[in-house]
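input
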Amino acid sequence: MSAKSLMIQGTMSGVGKSLLVAGLCRVLAQDGVRVAPFKSQNMALNSAITRDGKEIGRAQYMQAEAAGIEPTAAMNPVLLKPTTNTGSQVILNGAALANMTAREYFAFRHTLIEPIMDAYRELEREYDVILIEGAGSPVELNLKRDDIVNMGIARMTGSPVLLAGDIDRGGVFAQLVGTLMLLEKDERAYVKATVINKFRGDPTLFDDGMRILRERTGLPVAGLVPYLSLDLDEEDSACDRLETHGRSGIVDIAVVRLPKISNFSDFTALDAIDGVGVRYVRDARELGMPDLLIIPGTKATLADLRWLRNGGLDAAIERLVRAGVPVLGICGGYQMLGTSIADPYGMESGGEERGLGLLPVRTVFGRKKCQAQIDGEFGEVCGVLAPLGGALVHGYQIHMGRTVRDGGSFLLRLVRPDGQAVEDGCQVDNVYGTYLHGLFDTADVARGLMSALLGTRDDVCVHDMHAYRQSQYDALADGLRASMDLDLVYDIIQRGMH
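output
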């Protein structure tokens, strides 16, 4: 017997589809339903690595965690990672396929229907309910041909749809009613209810609004979901988290806001520590004198290195280093700290760039991407971050390129899934670099970092990030239980398209 399904589509990007799917995954899992998330095509620079070394969107990884199941590549068979304003790396079934321009991809995407449906059927065989997330809006009229992510997927899977609008941005009636008006008649039949997301204030003041929406659409409203202040990983850079620019907290951590910043979920664990302020800086004027500067990962290392240099951030970073401020580069940020980055095969833009010269390492991009979950520990750490020495780590690597160390010392000792022990990263004085994402998720590392920056471990509360994320999923589920008509949602799932 095939699984039941429900699809969450939105009136536009950023309405909260990912969180609604995650929350419903948690609700159904709490109710004893075997449920899995699915997004046929995702576009995001925040990605994650599954246990078997496959790359998927961060949102689907989070949704699987919320459902209490192991994330797999079948949950996000197609992932697009933008490399330029008009091109992306195409990830198929968890592995890099090719770099394509937008025009090339649109001509190619119809060939992805078969692998997408193979992935969906894999989930169908294992789970009772599949919660499907759409992308953007289903009525981008110029993009609807060969659609593989919104109504095209609803048709292929026979899934009823909840249409979500974002009242926080305003114009929620125009969003929902306008979207329904622009749908084709057969598409409109798939939409079984609407959801209003991100409501602030007294919900009883919107009683008339609910009535008007029902009258204008002829559909029930499945929920008036409040604006939930939760600390969950974001899937792309269009989020409030990256708009924090001012200093706050006892400990001031600055992260360079690279144009193609990726995997900034690395810093969720730091945000969660009481007294720590994480801010994102775009230029030298915003930088100030932080307690720690982090250069994060990026999907366009060479281009973002040029951006950093053109804006004068290179000189500002050098001044911080001379002043004794610890500087940490992660993945692409680690590569930038070196002496050179070469791209002989054109995996990004091609050519070679001089690095910041703060670490004695050289990077050459190859054709193969390194993807793996990895355990390990810090080696002997020099400089300000010395208290991190010996701290246990668990994270993942996801990068193009091989980096050779010509001096300094390694930062981490890691054990690959095949059992091979490897040295990772480099350190010289107060400059550190590593390829490991998720570096701060273990309590050992968080305590060591706070000891380094505050000089004490006793009065700072750090979190076990696994337990912390579980508590956030529970809070999300509580919020949906209090604001959604779950009897209606279950009825829509059960009835399907009948």
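quick obs: The first helix runs from residue 17 to 30.
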